[in-house]
Amino acid sequence: MHTAAISTDENTLVTFRATSSASGSALSYRYHILSNSWDQSVVKVQNPTKEGVRAVQDPVSGLVYLAGGYQSDDSQMYVYNIDTDTMTMLSMPSNYMVDRLFYAGVYLKSRRSIIYFGGTANNNQSSQNVISEFTPSNGGWLTLNTSGQSPPHRVDHCMAASDDSSKVVVFGGRFDNGTFARDLWILDVSSLTWTQGDPWFEPRTATTCTVAGSIFLAWGGNNGQRTVDGTIVLYDLNSGQYISSYTPPSYYANGATNNGYGGSAGLPNDSPNHVRRKRKQW
Asked: Domain range holding 235?
C-alpha cells in the first residue's frame, strides 16, 4: 500500500516505500510531471521498505509528515521537504504515536493540525482507540476527547477531511480480529462528536478517499476476496445517503486549488478530473 504527496507547485509527485523489495535506502521515488521522469530521493533512511507509515501534508508549509518514520523503533516524526528533497526528524513522545503503524491521518486547516486514528504496533498489539493530534507549528501532541460512540479500532482504513475541515470521515479497513470493515463514521470537528453513517454494501480496505464539497468519495482497495473494480463510493454528508452521481463544486470546475486533505493509497488513472484539481495527500 503506497503513500504519497505532491509538491507545492504540483509538478512533483513523491511516493514513499515504493515496494517491499526496493533496492537501496532512498526515502522516496519522485515523479517529475513536466518531464515525465522518475528519480530517487537523495535522502537515505534506515529501513526504506518498512510498511504502515502514512504521509500527511501540511498545506501551509508544504512539508510532509511521516509519523513513526523509517527507524526500527518507530520513535521519530520524519519531516520531508519535497521542494528541496531534504528531511529532518522530530522525536515523538512515547505515549502518542511511537510504535504505531497502519494508522490513518488527515490535516485539519480549521485546527492547523494533523489528527491520527487507528493503527497497530510492531508486536501486533492494537494502539489505543483514540485520536492523536499533532500541531506542526509547535511540535505539540494531544489526545482529543471525543463524545459519542467511537469507531471500532482498525488498521488499513481510509480517512478524509471535508474542504473546510468541519468533518472527518473514517471508512473501511480491517478490525482487530482480521475482519474487513465496511462501516463509515463521521467526526464533527467543532464538537469532536462521532456519528455513524450507513455501511457500504461490501467491505473495503486499503482504499483511497477524499471529500469534494459535501460528498465523500472512495475508490480502489480490496473487499477481502479480491481487488475491487472501478466503482466509486459516493456518500452525501448532508443527506447521510449513498448516491450514484453528483456535480462537483463550482470551484473545482473553475480549477481553483482547495485545501481539503484526505487520503490513503494513490490516485488512479481513471479518477474524476475534479478530484485531480484538488490538492491532497494520499
From this structure: 146-246
Amino acid occupying residue 160: A
pLDDT per residue as tens digits for the range 234-278 = 999 999 999 999 888 887 766 554 444 445 433 333 333 333 334
Phi, psi (deg, nearest 5) at residue 191:
-100, -10
- Residue 245: helix, strand or coil by DSSP? coil
At 274, list the grid cell.
475534479
Which CATH number do you get for residue 112?
A: 2.120.10.80
Cα–Cα distance for residue pair 76/89, rounded to 1 Å: 6
225: Cβ contacts below 8 Å, ≥ 6 apart: none
Determine, yes or no, domain membership for 270: no
Give residues with Cβ within 8 angstroms of 269, minimum separation 6: none
The residues facing 14 across adjacent strands are 5, 30
* Nearest by Cα to 197 from 242, 248, 251, 247: 242
Determine, yes or no, domain membership for 105: yes
122 C-beta neighbours (distance < 10 Å), count: 14
The pTM score is 0.87
Q: What is the side-by-side strand order in the sheet with 104-108?
A: 104-108, 113-117, 131-135, 140-144
